[in-house]
Amino acid sequence: MPTNIAIPALDGEGSIPVYCARPAGTARAAILVIPEIFGVNAGIAAKCDAWADLGYLAIAPDIFWRFAPGSELNPDIEAEFKQAIDNMMQFSADDGVKDIEACAKHVRHAEGVEKVGVVGFCLGGRLAYMASTRTDVDASVGYYGVMIDQMLNEAHAIARPLMLHIPTGDHFVGPDAQAAIHAELDPHPRVTLHDYPGLDHGFAATSGGRRNEEGAQLADKRTQEFFAENLG
Questions:
Q1: With the C-alpha atoms ordered 143, 172, 88, 81, is the resulting torsion angle positive or negative?
Q2: What sign results for the dihedral spanned by CA atoms 101, 228, 119, 79?
Q3: Contact predicate 140/161, CB 8 Å
Q4: Which of 62, 106, 149, 201 is the catalytic position?
Q5: What domains sit in the chain, N to C, each tagged with a CATH number?
Q6: How far apart, in whole angstroms, are the C-alpha atoms of residue 230 and residue 232?
Q7: Contact 45/31 with Cβ under 8 angstroms?
Q8: Is 53 a residue of the active site?
Q9: Beta bridge partners of 60
Q10: What is the model's pLDDT at position 1?
């Protein structure tokens, strides 16, 4: 796993291993990159590096550090995909949000970077949504977030801008779940939803069989513009 620093968890729980990519000069803002169920693998590190190239301090926490530290899994290998599902089943999303809060606190106080955004994928997309309802991060983006439809009762607490990328062919987030998300969040003044007709879960993965190049580039362009507008 390419983690290279550690950040103190809240309440003295321990230290969160993270991958940190730094910009060449002063960071314009910080972006927390929350991984899929496959951990901080080479694809997530590449996303951090890309944000650093755009002038952001980018940090990806190992969200499974409490029980499966160092998990770095390949979704195209069946055994590793099954291990990722097992990790997800053990995972506490409440702990994940606490870790996002710890990382935001670290970049603001230890790194001196005031503005903090969150971008997450799959399980990380759910955590990005939860960060928008439970933390004071400045902006959040979720790609194909799972189980958001089961947490729409928190939507009233969204106080900062949130963007969600929704592939309509997502076999983990079906049509009923997508309809519920749209019904609740379309009217919300701080929320922007983008549908990607026919695309499936994982379409914006950095590499591998799930990536859709056209869809990934469009979603990433929208995300970059969103953070430029809301983080500076």
A1: negative
A2: negative
A3: yes
A4: 201
A5: 5-231 (3.40.50.1820)
A6: 6
A7: no
A8: no
A9: 19
A10: 55
The encoded tokens of residue 66 equal: 């409490």
- Which residues are within 8 A (CB) of 229 and not within 5 positions of it... i.e. 6 or more apart? none
CA dihedral 227, 122, 60, 116 (to 10 degrees): 30
The residues, ordered by sequence, that sit 6+ positions from 40 with a Cβ below 8 Å of its Cβ are 1, 2, 3, 17, 18, 19, 60, 61, 62, 72
- The separation between CA 62 and the C-alpha centre of its own chain, rounded to angstroms, equals 12
pLDDT per position as a tens digit, 160-210: 999 999 999 999 999 999 999 999 999 999 999 999 999 999 999 987 788
Give the C-alpha separation, 8 to 150, whole Å: 30
The two structure tokens encoding residue 110: 């230890």
Q: Which pair of structure tokens corresponds to residue 217?
A: 């580039």
The answer for residues whose C-beta is within 8 angstroms of residue 189's C-beta and 6 or more apart is: none
Residues 104, 189, 118, CA angle at the centre, nearest 5°?
A: 20
- Provide the whole-model pTM: 0.96
Rg of the chain, C-alpha, whole Å: 16
CA-to-CA distance for 129 and 57, rounded, in angstroms? 21
Q: What angle do CA 204, 207, 163 make, to 5 degrees?
A: 15
Q: Which two tokens stand for residue 154?
A: 């928190």
Q: Which of 99, 138, 149, 170 is catalytic?
A: 170
Residue 8's SS3 state is strand
Distance CA 108, CA 84 (A): 31
Please indicate whether residue 201 is annotated as part of the active site.
yes
